[in-house]
Amino acid sequence: MNTITRWEPPRGGTSLQDQVNRLFEDTLTRGRSGQAELATWAPAVDIYETESELVVKADLPDLQEKDIDVRVENNTLTIRGERKFEKDVNEDNYLRIERAYGSFMRSFSLPNTVKTDGIRAEYRNGALTVRMAKREESKAKQVKINVTGNGK
Fold first, then answer.
1. Distance in angstroms (rounded) separating the CA atoms of residues 60 and 73
2. CA–CA gap between residue 118 and residue 124 (Å, rounded)
3. Using CA atoms, how far apart are residues 24 and 38, in angstroms rounded to an integer?
4. Which residues of 84-109 are buried (b: 16+ CB within 10 A; e: fewer)?
5. Nearest Cα to 99, choosing from 87, 83, 81, 88?
6. How far apart are CA 14 and CA 45, in angstroms?
7. Which of 66, 71, 106, 141 has its CA 20 to 30 A from that of 152?
8. pLDDT digits (tens, 9 = 90+) for 32-78
9. How does DSSP classify residue 35?
10. Is the pTM for the entire model greater than 0.90?
11. What is the pLDDT of residues 88-108, one digit of tens each?
12. Domain at 112, CATH number
């Protein structure tokens, strides 16, 4: 015959289930305050390299150029800005708020191969593209080597 034993969670602290529930509640239940502290966010970024430049692309929807700050200091690229909560709609009319608002900052260490004086940034269709030219000495070079036969 099988015996059924009742499981009692450990006493003296919160259970793992309580901690997980609290994590989801903190993340999913946001107040309707309409303030910038609704959530913190960091824009998604792609970084790729071509023969002549290093490129950083960041998704920054619903921002204006004046709200974006791009700087290079001590070989570190920093992108910061703020997405403001729109006050066009009455807060009580929102049924769901999932997008994050507020200030953000992303920093990336740059390799020594980047010319910091040759950096261009462009913001179009909600995407920021930062193009950083490489130094000439860091670009790949091909040298043709003549091959001779029998040491001649």
1. 22
2. 20
3. 15
4. ebeeeeeeeeeeebeebbeebeeeee
5. 83
6. 37
7. 141
8. 443 434 457 899 999 999 999 999 999 999 899 999 999 999 999 99
9. S
10. no
11. 888 788 888 888 888 999 999
12. 2.60.40.790
